[in-house]
Amino acid sequence: MINLETIQAAHDRIRSHIHRTPILTNRTINERSGVEIYFKPENFQKIGAFKARGGLNAILQLSEQERYYGRSLGPVTTHSSGNHAQAVAFAARQVGTKAYIVMPRTAPQVKKDAVLGYGAEVIECEPTLEAREAGVQEIIEQTGAVLIHPFDDDRVIAGQATAAKELIEDVDFDLFFDVIMAPVGGGGLLSGTALATHYLSPRTKVIAAEPEGAADAVLSFKSGKVEKAPYIKTIADGLMTSLSERTLGYIREHVTDILTVSDAEIIAAMRLIWERMKIIIEPSCAVPLAALLKNKDQFAGQKVGIILTGGNVDLGKLPF
């Protein structure tokens, strides 16, 4: 189980390899929403996404273990549509080992190019979870690589928890957040956010947001078992993965609610941040703000922290 000491150790481990991203506010967005919003822009993070935190924490722990035994770290592998792929490639480069990344052929080219730029090898597959997992298994059998799962790994979850830890520590007021929001795909960030909030700000609610076109987490949250989305069709390419038993357990214990939004609402929120905050975010990143704007009455007058998850967007394929 992940406790506060686990999260603190993760933060200490990765601190020298990451940016402590700032806290941003925007008067226009606050006025439109009726909410006091504090954004944590992980699009400014190494690799352009929060995923650097979890990938580094997992691989640096492997490196520590290998050094203890006097060995060099062998290859690592993962499957990802983009940001976790970059995180593992980046972290592998930091420790001087090889990374094999299985990516769906439909993943944004900008993300594939970034993975290659970090020195990893990209193996393309069909855009299904089964194809991704089969590709990783083949690499493990051929190379002996260690799997760094995108979210079903406590080392990854503890690394992702450091974003919420910083958010809670860095906002300068004497009270507390009423709510912290994060998007949910496989649930690694949401699990880490919920755990960090539980330990550091227990009066704060954690509310997740999910695309209607990949709405498995809300079903799993209600039923108590891992469910599949009724259909997969969303612009938020980073949130198409289903939860695991591990992440569902953390989420059901520490998350208050999961809200869903349409692609049109995601695009509107994404455009609002581009126009008013002058920063680049990807569609998955806009999902929590879209959910807040859709449910303004639920959040009216509250202090809300939102983790902006990443900015790795294909500039040639903007939805506006």
Automatic annotation (TrEMBL):
CDD domains (alphabetical): Thr-dehyd (cd01562)
Domain Tryptophan synthase beta chain-like PALP positions: 15-310
Requisite cofactors: pyridoxal 5'-phosphate
SUPFAM superfamilies the UniProt entry points to: Tryptophan synthase beta subunit-like PLP-dependent enzymes
One of the protein's GO biological processes: D-serine biosynthetic process
Keyword field: Lyase, Pyridoxal phosphate
InterPro entries the UniProt entry points to: TrpB-like_PALP (IPR001926), TrpB-like_PALP_sf (IPR036052)
Gene Ontology molecular function terms on file: ATP binding; D-serine ammonia-lyase activity; L-serine ammonia-lyase activity; magnesium ion binding; pyridoxal phosphate binding; serine racemase activity; threonine racemase activity
Keyword check for Lipoprotein: no
Family according to the record: Belongs to the serine/threonine dehydratase family.
Name of the molecule in the record: Threonine/serine dehydratase
Species of provenance: Larkinella knui
